[in-house]
Design goal:
There is one protein chain. The longest helix has 22 residues. Strand 1, helix 3 and strand 2 form a beta-alpha-beta unit. This protein is of the alpha/beta class and 251 residues long. It has nine helices and five strands; from the N terminus they run H-H-E-H-E-H-E-H-E-H-H-E-H-H. The protein has a single domain, classed as 3-Layer(aba) Sandwich (Rossmann fold), CATH 3.40.50.10490.
Length: 251
């Protein structure tokens, strides 16, 4: 199918751009993440949108991922529990960040593709006030192509990439979808989930390498669905999950 080939080419082009053009911010972000492991602290991850929340889901309690991840999952943000949705709600970010324990000198990975919505901008502003370092995974090209004062924007009209300490460009075009089909005005085939999950994983992969270079074993989850997985994870469950604010009942 021609459309499948074009979609594959579009997605791989975005992933290649992240790989080739974002090496420096990924390196900087990975060093911050590695420092949290060295100090026995958590890395806070907030995917601040109905789909961007998948970025936090991807790196929490994930085979091959770090055990010291504290995901921020406020009620009403994901599309599963958006009744009502809080993505465009101002004034609640401080309470959310404080509940999840974000504080001075912490690392917050803030993931939002468009980087414009109220909860994203409020979270970045409040995190800075709290003294946290912000790593943004976002698309400046998307944000810069959204006009000011539309309903989706924060009242300040600020963009996430303007507020973060480190910006990993997700290289997602404005509007997200990348495939044009003749006879359909709107593009189809979303690209952002591939981009943000890839970028987020790259940060942790590089952090693992940096830790090994220092002779430190990174806290990596083993799949709980393979033989010996539960046993391998016990030490991380004991060390980190009591610090995490989003726990599964089984623990």
């Amino acid at each position: 199918m021609k459309s499948a080939e074009e979609y594959l080419e579009g997605i791989t082009g975005i992933l290649r751009a992240i790989t080739e053009q974002e090496q420096q911010p990924i390196e900087e972000a990975a060093r911050l993440v590695a420092s949290r492991v060295e100090e026995g602290k958590l890395v806070h991850v907030f995917g601040s949108g109905g789909h961007s929340i998948m970025g936090a889901m991807e790196v929490f309690w994930r085979a091959g991922g770090f055990a010291n991840v504290n995901p921020i999952f406020p009620a009403g943000l994901s599309l599963i529990d958006s009744h009502p949705n809080i993505e465009r709600t101002t004034g609640i970010a401080y309470s959310i960040l404080r509940y999840y324990g974000v504080g001075k000198d912490d690392v917050l990975i803030l993931i939002n593709v468009n980087g414009i919505n109220p909860i994203t901008i409020d979270s970045a502003m409040e995190a800075k006030k709290l003294g946290a370092k912000i790593i943004a995974i976002t698309s400046p090209a998307f944000a810069n192509n959204v006009p000011p004062n539309i309903s989706a924007r924060h009242p300040s009209n600020k963009n996430l990439h303007e507020l973060a300490d480190i910006v990993v460009d997700a290289h997602v075009p404005a509007g997200d979808a990348i495939l044009k089909i003749k006879g359909i005005e709107q593009a189809v085939g979303a690209s952002s989930s591939y981009a943000i999950l890839f970028a987020a994983n790259l940060i942790f992969v590089r952090a693992a390498e940096l830790l090994i270079e220092k002779g430190i074993q990174p806290p990596i989850w083993t799949s709980a669905n393979v033989k010996g997985g539960d046993e391998a994870n016990k030490k991380y469950l004991k060390k980190y999950l009591p610090l995490v604010h989003h726990l599964y009942p089984m623990f």
